[in-house]
Amino acid sequence: MIPPAAANPALDGGAPPPPQMVAPPPPGTDMTGICFRDQLWLNTYPLDRNLVFDYFALSPFYDYSCNNEQLRLRATHPLDLSHLSKMTGIEYSLSEVLEPHLFVFRKQKRDGPEKVTPMLTYYVLDGSIYQAPQLCNVFASRVGRALYHISKAFNTAASKLEKIGY
């Protein structure tokens, strides 16, 4: 089987290959509302820990200026920690794997062999790729929803009290 990075879909009658230097979205761009899925790729290759990074690299979440891309250009496995730990900059690491259904990627900034700062989390769930929401956004949403329902309850109670004369 030809690995996805070496296959040429244009010659195989498939879609043209994705552009290699697509600019990543600007920092701070919220992409939690986007889902990426390439059914042709999924029908062609198995989704396992060896090929999931090649699949993730097709998505709009992937930053082509990352350290993993430099390793791919050197024909080294892009998740090889022995090479990544010697580099500095943005990288992706595979943090959780429940083959073949769930793969969790962490985008992080590496400042040294032991110093990494997590930035964002992405997950591949049954072939669909998503950006996980940041914890502060989840809390803000939950608190906002709770405040809405509390306010609605007080308004309902106030209107019922007005009806009975209080």
How would you characterize this protein structure?
It comes from Erythranthe guttata. One of its GO terms (cellular component) is core mediator complex. It is found in: Nucleus. This is Mediator of RNA polymerase II transcription subunit 6. By secondary structure, the protein is of the alpha+beta class. The chain has helices at 39-44, 52-56, 67-73, 81-84, 135-163; strands at residues 35-36, 89-98, 102-110, 116-125, 128-131. It has two domains: 35-132, Nuclear Transport Factor 2, Chain: A (Roll), CATH 3.10.450.580; 133-165. It has five helices and five strands. A five-stranded antiparallel β-sheet has the order 1-5-4-3-2. It starts with 34 loop residues before the first strand and ends with a helix. Mean pLDDT is 85; it is low at 1-19.
Q: Give a count of the beta strands, DSSP E runs of length 2 or more.
A: 5
- What topology, given as strand order, has the largest sheet? 1-5-4-3-2
Question: What low-confidence regions span 5 or more consecutive residues with pLDDT below 50?
Answer: 1-19
Q: Under the CATH scheme, which architecture of the largest domain would be assigned?
A: Roll
* CATH fourth-tier homologous superfamily of the largest domain: Mediator complex, subunit Med6
Percentage of residues in DSSP E strands:
15-25%
User: How many helices?
Assistant: 5
- What's the level 1 CATH class of the largest domain? Alpha Beta
SSE-based structural type: alpha+beta
The arrangement of helices and strands along the chain is: EHHHHEEEEH
Work out the helicity level. 25-40%
* Overall 3D form: elongated
For the record, the count of structural domains works out to 2
Main beta-sheet strand count, sense and barrel state: 5 strands, antiparallel
Termini separation: 78 Å
Rounded to an integer in angstroms, the radius of gyration calculated over CA atoms is 22 Å
Remind me, CATH topology of the largest domain?
Nuclear Transport Factor 2, Chain: A
Rounded mean pLDDT is: 85
